[in-house]
Design goal:
Blueprint (H helix, E strand, L loop, with lengths): L9 H12 L3 E2 H7 L7 H14 L2 E6 L2 E6 L3 H17 L3 H11 L4 H20 L2
Helix pairs in contact: 1-3
Length: 130
C-alpha cells in the first residue's frame, strides 16, 4: 500500500465526492450540496476538519471563511481503497474478486464486454513489452 494512503470513512467519501465534482467550495456550498444527507452543519464541519487533518483536503482563507479543495485525486483514493478492499476481502487475489463478481450475475453484458476488452488489452500490452 502507498505510504501516502489516506483512509477515508464512508461519510467522508460523500464529502469528498462533492469537492471532487467541483471545487473549491465554501462551507455553505458544501452544506447545500449535502442537504440530502440530513447532516447538521456541525457534523459536516467535523468531517471537513478530519479530512483536512488527514491531508485529503486543503483550505484557503477567504474572507471570514475557508475555501475547501481536494488535496488528493478521486482516482488515487479509488485505487488505494480498492487495494485495501481486495486485500481484506479476497486475500489480495484480483482473479478471485473478479470471478466472484462475474459468478454473482450482477454484471451487465456491457460491463462484461468492457472487462473482457480491458483484459485483452492488458494481455496485448504485456505481450508487446516482452
Amino acid at each position: 500500500m502507498d505510504k501516502q494512503y489516506i483512509s477515508i470513512s464512508e461519510s467522508e467519501w460523500r464529502v469528498m465526492k462533492v469537492l471532487w465534482a467541483q471545487s473549491p467550495k465554501t462551507l455553505p456550498q458544501i452544506i447545500d450540496a449535502l442537504r440530502d444527507a440530513s447532516w447538521s452543519t456541525t457534523t459536516i464541519q467535523t468531517y471537513l476538519a478530519r479530512l483536512v487533518k488527514k491531508g485529503a483536503l486543503r483550505t484557503r482563507r477567504q474572507g471570514k471563511g475557508y475555501l475547501y479543495s481536494p488535496a488528493i485525486s478521486e482516482e488515487k483514493c479509488q485505487i488505494e481503497e480498492g487495494k485495501t478492499f481486495l486485500k481484506r476481502v479476497f486475500d489480495g487475489s484480483l482473479a478471485s474478486m473478479v470471478s466472484n463478481f462475474v459468478k454473482s450475475g450482477n454484471l451487465s453484458d456491457e460491463e462484461l464486454k468492457k472487462l473482457k476488452s480491458f483484459i485483452e488489452g492488458q494481455s496485448k500490452k504485456d505481450a508487446d513489452n516482452r
